[in-house]
UniProtKB/TrEMBL annotation:
It comes from the Bacteria. The lineage of its organism: Bacteria, Pseudomonadati, Balneolota, Balneolia, Balneolales. This is Uncharacterized protein. The chain crosses the membrane at residues 39-61, 67-89. The keyword Membrane applies.
Amino acid sequence: MNDLTPSGKPKIPQAEGETAQSGRLSLKKLARHAKSVNLFYLISGAAQLFLGALVTMVSILNLVQPIWLAAFLSLFGCVVTMLGVYQVYEVFNSRRSVSDLARDAIERAIQDRN
């Protein structure tokens, strides 16, 4: 087997299922990362997103009669929606996988050696 890239540098081992273009966002990579975090955070973030948008929509459509209550619910729904978006963002960008850390460490060791 040839353990060198076309440029003459040694190949860096990759985790199972990863392609050479690991910078690309793929559904497989996203699903594997979502499995590595607690699924409860993802579900609660999505629920916050949906319910916050629903409460905001209900208050904007004047389905809540006292105007002060509709204004309060609209504000509350917006805040909950923003928190839901942030929580879903944190679920997918919270940590790098262990295989990425190992691959980066091997790459740094090889570059320092050369």
